[in-house]
């Protein structure tokens, strides 16, 4: 039994796009400049906001999501990451009570209750005054177990507008207005179809963070925010660690393609591979000419479409990867990783060759093809997951299937929720490769890291004796 007393607060809103990320980044950075060690968290299955939050905090940002993680895992993750922190900031997603159904299941409000965390609401007050107070009053009364501690008003038109809003909110709800941000025409954070431009692609990420920091320092009561964070009640945590009981009995190296084209990785996933005994070797599909000596490979999501020309031009790397896959290298690929392993990608009228593992051509749609939580059942042989297992994760992509030339692969996952490859199936398998449009979180999928590391151990052993011939798993068996 562990008691966590870390100061903490949840930053939420009435809807998406209210300014939560801007405030979260500025607050984290401002507190860090004041000497605090801030542990950042993001509610929901996101990669881009956590990348920014981690950059602001100078430490990894971890995702907390009750759809694919049990409450005990969320509490354990929070406790682990706040052990050496002065305070914690949890950025919510969408509106405070928005979840997967009318009851608000898996919402930011439910996470705040689980963490016993006070909530500060960031609200967009464009073209409204007292009506905003009514909406906040509704948030207070909808669930009395949610502790809403204060409000930051965003996109204020001027001093008179701010004065009316402050009086309306404080007189109607009793909530303190902790800050007011003026409406600006240009944000320091550029946006693209998935949300913010990732910091790895931003032309001046540090300057954007500096602007956010100054904005919060000058317009938000940081002392009051800290008092709210310190008002959080202690958390009693019964299960502290999700470390796998499995540990590789021989040294193995897992390659991770991590560059500006592929940068969607949960820190928990990489740590879970290390916990199973693997050494992580970072690789660039853009700059490296060949792969290093590795026993397995993990290719996460990202933006292969914005780097298609450079990925295609690196012919040596693509050919080396294809040869290793044909040789039996275990590969786990997600979303952008799947795209990279296909035959070609059509972007803006130009076709770019990819690795060519799967005889599939893809193009980019104008609207999301798959967007939201997914649930799949493993129903066929594959290198990493036993048949019958139910896996939860998420998908968010604009890439779509343009053509499939042959059936030289099979599917291992049946879609129960979400789109996947074709609305019914996902999980493309070829030799020791499993590639899907689904992203999975290691804390929510038991054995995620163990499956990849076990196959890496087997591959390393077969390479040692020079006997790689076919899949490392036996088709038709349950792993």
Number of contiguous helices: 13
Global shape: globular
Report the mean per-residue pLDDT as an integer. Answer: 93
- Secondary structure class reads alpha/beta
Q: What's the count of strands? A: 27
Q: Report the biggest beta sheet as strand number plus sense, adding barrel if it closes.
A: 10 strands, mixed
Give the end-to-end Cα distance, rounded to a whole number of Å: 33 Å
Give structural notes:
The structure is a single chain. This protein has 479 residues and is of the alpha/beta class. It folds into two domains: 2-237, P-loop containing nucleotide triphosphate hydrolases (Rossmann fold), CATH 3.40.50; 252-465, Class I glutamine amidotransferase (GATase) domain (Rossmann fold), CATH 3.40.50.880. Helix content is 30%, strand content 28%. The strands form six sheets. Strands 14-12-15-17-26-25-24-21-22-27 form a ten-stranded mixed sheet. Strand 3 (38-43), helix 2 (48-57) and strand 4 form a beta-alpha-beta unit.
């Amino acid at each position: 039994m562990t008691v966590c007393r870390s100061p903490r607060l949840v930053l939420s809103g009435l809807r998406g796009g209210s300014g939560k990320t801007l405030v979260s980044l500025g607050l984290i950075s401002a507190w860090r400049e004041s000497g605090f060690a801030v542990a950042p968290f993001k509610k929901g299955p996101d990669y881009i906001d956590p990348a920014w939050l981690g950059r602001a905090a100078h430490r990894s940002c971890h995702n907390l999501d009750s759809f694919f993680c049990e409450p005990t895992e969320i509490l354990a993750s929070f406790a682990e990451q706040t052990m050496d922190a002065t305070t914690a900031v949890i950025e919510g997603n969408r509106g405070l009570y928005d979840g997967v159904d009318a009851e608000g299941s898996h919402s930011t409000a439910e996470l705040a209750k689980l963490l016993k965390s006070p909530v500060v609401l960031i609200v967009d007050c464009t073209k409204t005054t007292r009506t905003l107070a009514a909406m906040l009053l509704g948030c207070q009364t909808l669930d009395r177990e949610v502790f809403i501690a204060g409000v930051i008003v965003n996109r204020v038109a001027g001093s008179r507008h701010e004065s009316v809003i402050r009086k309306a909110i404080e007189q109607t709800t009793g909530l303190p207005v902790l800050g007011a941000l003026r409406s600006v025409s240009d944000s320091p954070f550029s946006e693209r179809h998935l949300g913010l431009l990732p910091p790895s692609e931003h032309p001046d990420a540090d300057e954007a963070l500096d602007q956010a920091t100054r904005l919060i320092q000058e317009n938000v009561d940081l002392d009051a925010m800290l008092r709210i964070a310190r008002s959080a009640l202690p958390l009693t945590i019964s299960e502290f660690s999700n470390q796998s009981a499995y540990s590789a009995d021989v040294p193995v190296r897992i390659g991770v393609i991590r560059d500006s084209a592929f940068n969607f990785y949960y820190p928990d996933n990489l740590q879970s591979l290390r916990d199973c005994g693997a050494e992580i070797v970072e690789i660039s599909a853009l700059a490296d000419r060949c792969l290093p000596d590795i026993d397995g490979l993990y290719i996460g999501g990202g933006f292969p479409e914005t780097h298609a020309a450079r990925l295609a031009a690196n012919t040596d790397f693509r050919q080396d990867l294809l040869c290793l896959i044909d040789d039996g290298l275990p590969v786990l690929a997600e979303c952008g990783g799947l795209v990279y392993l296909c035959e070609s990608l059509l972007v803006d009228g130009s076709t770019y060759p990819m690795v060519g593992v799967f005889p599939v051509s893809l193009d980019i749609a104008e609207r999301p093809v798959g967007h939201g939580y997914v649930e799949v059942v493993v129903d066929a042989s594959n290198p990493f997951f036993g048949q019958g297992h139910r896996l939860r994760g998420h998908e968010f992509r604009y890439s779509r299937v343009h053509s499939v030339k042959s059936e030289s692969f099979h599917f291992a996952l049946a879609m129960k929720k979400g789109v996947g490859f074709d609305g019914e199936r996902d999980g493309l398998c070829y030799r020791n490769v499993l590639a899907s449009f689904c992203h999975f979180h290691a804390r929510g999928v038991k054995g995620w890291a163990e499956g990849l590391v076990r196959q890496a151990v087997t591959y390393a052993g077969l390479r040692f004796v020079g006997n790689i011939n076919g899949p490392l798993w036996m088709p038709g068996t349950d792993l």
